[in-house]
Amino acid sequence: MKNMKDRDYTHAIQIDTDKCIGCSHCMQVCPTQAIRIVEGHAGIMSERCVDCGECYRVCPVRAIYVKDDGMSVIRHDAYRVALVPSVFIGQFPSEHTASEIMEAVRLIGFDEVLEVEQAVDFMKKEYARFAGEAENVVRPVISSFCPAIVRLIQVHYPSLTGQILKIKAPHDIAALYVRKSKEKAGIDPRNIFICYVTPCAAKIVAARAPVGEKVSAIDGAIDMKEVYNLVSKILMEKKEARLSKQFANMSPDSVNWSLSGTEKQYFRGRALAIDGMDNAMEFLDRLESGRVTGVDFLEMRACDQGCAGGILCPGNRFLTVERLEQREKKLVHLTEVNKPGKNDLMDYAEELHQVSTTDPVYPRDGLLLDEDMEKALQKMDRIKKLNSYLPGFDCGACGAPTCRSLAEDIVKEKATISYCVFVQRVMEKNYNLSPDQAFHVIEKIWGKDRLKKYQLQNGKTES
Fold it and tell me: Which of 246, 207, 222 is nearest to 101 (CA)?
């Protein structure tokens, strides 16, 4: 087995240490306690990070950024397809039709553009099939739609990994459809390049290193903000050359699939919709401890309002939700007035069904304290004892978010008990630590420059 220290995890969330000021805002909001402050800068513990983007939201100096593939990754020698989620269309004022926006996306460098939610009709069919074939599955079944939630369960709630729905997300199904349909049309599969316009960091990671799949059908993921800026420019330049109004060849309610509360409507039984990382964790705590029963399905989204609240969405999430709801109403009206077009994706439903499932999801083994179970139990016991010695203030002055986190870091030999400023005072009082040694520990955590202001204000020179 590969050594735990050698395991690598793919991440889109990155930290620019040249910009980072070590404010610890990111450390305090990280739901999986994946961030530490070392030498005055934030650092991410790769095995714990789920790319939810909570740290990105609160960074005051924009030192935390999302590393996507970018427009430059697009192969110009290939047949280029952009997968666009409905929330992208919801970023624009209602004066722009979906077809205008999709055509503008095509003009920035693609041969074809497909709305991801075209795959939702297939998802509904798969949910109905699952309900009829899986009567003995442990409930609640947890949606696999949000990759940040899937990774959160892997990291923080390992006992629930077996309850994650083993069906691929709509963007994966849409990508598979593109590959199958274009190959049938005579395009060499090696010359098809599929880009996903993503509203979040977690879906970038899902494209690069999917959970439950060996490889993704998507070749690249592009920050929605970048595409939004390019498309906005085209829409402004072509105001007088609008395309005719069209409606999507899919069920009207499909456009809202990524918003909180839509997916659960298509799973039989008692279903709940939960959005936001704090809400998701609070509910998963209850579920794991057995305080929630009688639920058949959990639709969970890491972001408030679902994907409309994604960290890469340039628009206001509430306005986005309103626009998508208005679009759904228009589509309902249009389908009543006109005969709706056929969803071509559904012609491939049986073929897609054969490749729509994922492998089981397992806990992240990188979180093990030791691969030797006996040693792991000894370390757990030591963490418990260390935690009892620490004050329990969870002040973060040690560079870790909680006293429990510091205890874990000590056991992993990434810190010492002298990192706690309160323990430092006791050690100084008992002559186990000199003031100079204590000062050196603080500098090791918060950096040498952090204390310059205080020294200068008090007329002191640097030590």
Answer: 246
